[in-house]
Description:
By secondary structure, the chain is α+β, with helices and mostly antiparallel strands. The chain has helices at residues 57-70, 86-96, 111-116, 154-163, and strands spanning 2-6, 9-14, 28-30, 36-38, 45-50, 76-82, 101-105, 119-120, 125-126, 129-133, 139-144.
Amino acid sequence: MRQAKFAGNPLTLEGKEVKVGESFRDFTVTNNDLSELKYSDTKGIRVFLAVPSIDTEVCDMEVRKFNKEAAELENVTVYTVSMDLPFAQGRWCGAAGIDNVKVVSDYNLRSFGEATGTFIKELALLTRASFVVDSEGKVVFVEYLEEMTNEPTYKDILEAAKAAK
């Protein structure tokens, strides 16, 4: 059984763990306008960020940082996935000026959480994790944070995205 921690307390992660070198698994999430976004709809080099809730301090910092950095990345699309409702995500993105990161919700089908092993059984949230997928659909970087209140390794994620083909 895989685990993450929230403030030191262990939590159960459900779904399939992602490993470098494998093909990224299909999923369906919800855009802020309630339309569906499937993994097969995404193209090029992709960064997928799983976060517990964009309306919390660490998630807020993470999405803002990647929004700033994404403007400098060529041929890379950054997606942030949380269990937040699409309406709340849209409101938060508008207030925060987020326009370089696509923020989507896994609230309905929970298929991203299942496909990436990021669904937290006890909280019905996603744990903090990062995945970089190349233009061929192969995973080139994976980071599951042991403590979900910590920030991800921005530099490593961005370098993996820049190096991906």
